[in-house]
Specification:
By secondary structure, the chain is of the alpha/beta class. It is about 40% helix and about 10% strand. The chain folds into two domains: about 1-15 and about 205-335, Conserved Hypothetical Protein Ylqf, Chain: A, domain 2; about 25-195, P-loop containing nucleotide triphosphate hydrolases (Rossmann fold, 3-Layer(aba) Sandwich), CATH 3.40.50.300.
């Protein structure tokens, strides 16, 4: 019975998960951004609303220091329904950044897009530059940078898409030329505001397996990196903490991911030859359903008053070279485990 169902209190640790997705074009993109800083007036950093702590990349703090920054928490529609708890969470996040302003955005909401656009306009007006203003939009892979850029362009100058978008990370691999989001001001003679799209940059090394699961579930790494069934198991863990009725059209409350996936296969017709359930196809379908906001609306990070301070403390001393060493050690341990399993 549903009334006797008890969700898992913790998700079992998976020490064999990959802990890095720092690719060549991530490093190249970050290096290029650094060389552009002298021509940039404002950095707009996008973080995923569903993982406001985990989608923070400390590489930006050091590499892009010295320029004013606006943090925009994107994909708000996938983690908020404007409930009291959602408003309380946003108030805590705003407190993290005081005295700096932060914004929360759904790129499909004109009001949210206008708030970002007005900030950019105001910043450009304060600079009072005849050559206009150039701004850089940065963030982890697939946090919605290009979608926000396109929305700002449409709202600001009424022009269509300038940046490609997609469900998988890595659509933007090179730094593009500036895209106009605010037209020339005939009164001041200013040449307008240009926004430069950049490739997503992953953290060199993820500090713990659960953070990797969060980033993978949100789409910051390709779906081939972590097994879809593992991601759905983690998704099921979070859904059960919020409301098991979210998946009631497929099966009753359960902590067994295979029970859930089998039920989804039969309910949606995802069956292979002989009626064998296509577990992986069902898992990928459920992941996409959640990413599109059709399987619950909640955040994965615990948002607490001292959350950002704790996150920054974890990052202290984790340099790029240390991250590479940790990655090699993790690979060595996985190879050793496979070798021992093969001998058993």
């Amino acid at each position: 019975m549903a009334s006797s169902f008890v969700p898992r209190a913790v998700f079992p640790p998976n020490l064999n998960l990959p802990r890095s997705y720092f690719l060549g074009h991530h490093a190249a993109g970050l290096s290029k951004m650094v060389t552009m800083l002298s021509h940039i007036d404002l950095i707009i950093e996008c973080r995923d609303y569903r993982v406001p702590l985990t989608s923070r990349n400390p590489l930006f703090e050091g590499s892009l220091a010295g320029r004013q920054r606006l943090v925009v928490y994107t994909k708000r529609d996938l983690g908020s329904r404007n409930r009291p708890a959602d408003k309380a969470r946003e108030a805590i996040i705003q407190d993290w950044h005081k005295p700096q302003q932060v914004l929360f955005s759904d790129h499909k909401s004109k009001r949210d897009v206008r708030s970002v656009l007005e900030f950019a306009k105001q910043h450009a007006q304060e600079l009072d530059s005849l050559t206009g203003s150039r701004m850089l939009i940065v963030g982890m892979p697939n946090v919605g940078k290009s979608s926000l850029l396109n929305a700002l362009r449409m709202e600001g100058v009424n022009r269509g898409k300038a940046a490609y978008t997609g469900a998988q990370p890595g659509i933007t691999r090179k730094i593009a030329s500036g895209v106009k989001i605010v037209d020339r001001n005939p009164e001041t003679g200013s040449e307008g505001v240009y926004l430069v799209d950049t490739p997503g940059v992953f953290v060199p090394f993820v500090p713990d397996p659960e953070s990797m699961l969060k980033l993978a579930l949100c789409g910051s790494v390709k779906d081939t990196i972590i097994a879809p069934t593992t991601l759905v198991d983690y998704l099921l863990f979070h859904i059960n903490k919020h409301d098991p009725k979210i998946y009631r059209e497929y099966c009753g409350p359960t902590n067994d991911v295979h029970e859930m996936l089998n039920a989804v296969c039969h309910k949606t017709g995802r069956l292979q030859k002989g009626g064998v359930p296509d577990i992986e196809a069902a898992a990928l379908w459920l992941i996409q359903r959640w990413r599109q906001g059709n399987l619950g609306c909640f955040v994965l990070d615990e948002v607490e008053e001292d959350g950002l301070a704790k996150k920054m403390q974890e990052e202290v001393g984790t340099s790029l070279s240390q991250a590479k060493k940790a990655k090699k050690e993790a690979q060595r341990q996985r190879s050793k485990t496979r070798f021992l399993e093969g001998k058993a």
